[in-house]
Amino acid sequence: MAERRLKVVQVLPALDGGGVERGTLEVAQALVTAGHQSIVISAGGRMVAELENGGSRHVRWDLGKKSPLTLRHLFPLRQWLLRERPDIVHLRSRMPAWVVWLAWRTLPVNQRPRLVTTVHGLYSVSGYSGVMCRGERVIAVSKTIENYIFSNYPWVERDRVRLIYRGVDPEEFPRDYQPDAQWLSAWYRQYPELKGRRVLTLPGRLTRLKGHHAFIDLIQWLNQDGQAVYGLIVGGEDPKRKAYARELREKVETLGLDERILFTGNRADMKEIYAVSDLVLSLSTKQEAFGRTVLEALTMGRPVVGYDHGGVGEILGALFPAGRVTPEDAGMLATVAKALLDQPLVPAHNTRFLRQQMLSETLDLYQLLSLSERETS
Description:
Helix content is about 40%, strand content about 15%. It is elongated and about 70 Å long. β4, α4 (about 95-105) and β5 form a beta-alpha-beta unit. By secondary structure, the protein is α/β, with parallel strands linked by helices. It folds into 2 domains: about 5-165 and about 355-370, Glycogen Phosphorylase B (Rossmann fold), CATH 3.40.50.2000; about 180-340, 3-Layer(aba) Sandwich (Rossmann fold).
């Protein structure tokens, strides 16, 4: 049977950057490439130009504000859906999902688009968060998310949930990649102390859950053990958490690690930074839904040490079991990191968590849902 040409609408708060936003653009581009119509509803942002240049249409609608006033968009949205008659509406965030779901429910059953939701995070368990499980098909981005859905929302029928892992493109993060001479020259001009040294990197914004204190303690322990390693903390300060960033810098100074731990701020060259890192760390104290930075580094063949929970644990279990550490076990973290510095191991090739596979499975889900029988309520 030939594929149907579909009109697919994705809905999220804004297009200012982030993993959900990047995934939205990737699906949009895959739809256009396959000959479907792609529309994204958001309040706008710096990624809109990229979206539109790829052949998708952007509809500016601010559905993401957590305010009762946002519900004023219900009737206009209902009229828009009746006029546009999309085949699929894909909801990716809670507040927009509530507005769209309530409008969708008022439509005659035979005039409703088919409804897909993606649970992107381990949201606080509540009726408000439960809207992300209201899709006719619910995408879980990892086994961790699938378990979260079934444990906390027992009313969700199992046959409505689809596990579709997020993924990276190996061409974007090529295995055994080496930065070019120009980048290396600029890097070592900026950080001359790193040349010829062993480097441990912790990517992630400066928020308390990312485990920066454990990373600083690890660098201190390894240097006391005679390892002579340097630590890179790669990520920008959260404007709302400047006190935490100050706390980290003061700790580094108090421990006498000013020359051993470097704060790089935000960087757009993560591929190159992974390539010059001897170990990449993932120390989030809270389970993560997936763990993109872990996967990016592993895809490049760089060893990763991370807490064995959530999506990070799933990825490490599949590609680099040697890097798994019991969460918040400082002794085990030090032991595993030292062992991998003394005797480096190479991660398995990433053949499971691939962007193209994620896109193919998502578009297949759209096709199958568009052809399936409608629910009557």
